[in-house]
């Protein structure tokens, strides 16, 4: 009887330990993002490729921490490097690249549908999102 009890306690400890290890790996998922910059007074729409964000984890509500900082990075790039003022920037993110790819295609299709807009890709070599300072 004591051996059975000891065996059950050992199995329970093993199950609990492996359960926590699995949860830790879930938090370490990669996070992907792309950005769009558009203006109400201009027909140019800039967008980035889907990029892997460096050392970033989504919070418990599946939101990107400091997402306004990533949006600001794109806004500053458009304003100072491409010399376009008054652009509104949006950042889309997900820990699932396939899901974000669908959102990327849907967003671009929306702008391509209207022939007024001219889409311009910002190459990853020119602009890459950086992790904001803590």
Task: Provide structural commentary.
The protein is α+β, with helices and mostly antiparallel strands and 134 residues long. The chain has a domain of 93 residues. It is built from 3 helices and 5 strands, in the order H-E-E-E-H-E-H-E. Strands 1, 2, 3, 4 and 5 form a 5-stranded mixed sheet that branches. It is elongated and about 80 Å long. The termini are far apart. About 4% of the residues have low confidence.
Q: Which strand-content bin applies to the residues?
A: 15-25%
Rounded average pLDDT:
87
C-alpha termini separation? 55 Å
Rg on CA atoms, Å: 22 Å
Summarize the helix and strand pattern as letters: HEEEHEHE
Largest sheet report = 5 strands, mixed
Number of beta strands: 5
Keywords for this entry:
single chain, alpha+beta, five-stranded mixed sheet, 21% strand, elongated
What's the helix and strand layout?
Elements: H1 2-27, E1 31-38, E2 44-48, E3 51-53, H2 67-81, E4 88-94, H3 97-113, E5 118-122
Parallel strand pairs: 2-5
Antiparallel strand pairs: 1-2, 1-3, 1-4
